[in-house]
Amino acid sequence: QVQLVESGGGLVQTGGSLRLSCAASGRTFGIYRMGWFRQAPGKEREFVARIYWSGGRTTYADSVKGRFTISRASGKNTVYLQMSSLKPEDTAAYFCNLEREGPGPDYWGQGTQVTVSS
Questions:
Q1: What is the residue-averaged pLDDT of the chain?
Q2: Which of 82, 91, 80 is nearest to 18 (CA)?
Q3: Out of 17, 47, 93, 100, which could bridge 111 as a Cys pair, Cβ 3.0 to 4.6 Å?
Q4: What is the CA radius of gyration of the chain?
């Protein structure tokens, strides 16, 4: 089993910044990629950003490109999401996701709330 614990959410004004963290523990060998998804009330969960553990390649949703940066601390099995120039439409619960190499389930954190006031 893998446990993911997110932190760093909160309330921020439009244009502000927040940094989310996600620490993975348990059976964390063979991480393929980790990422962030978000879900606003009444909407489906959507992809935000991910990072591939081998090589560090990153991908982003178009809506956050240039404003959000995903990074990792490999030795700590931790992934970060630096969010800048936040907008009210970024308001959502943010979930950390981990995929291991090979077949098997995805793992999800419990989520951390980000609220951007206008």
A1: 95
A2: 82
A3: 93
A4: 14
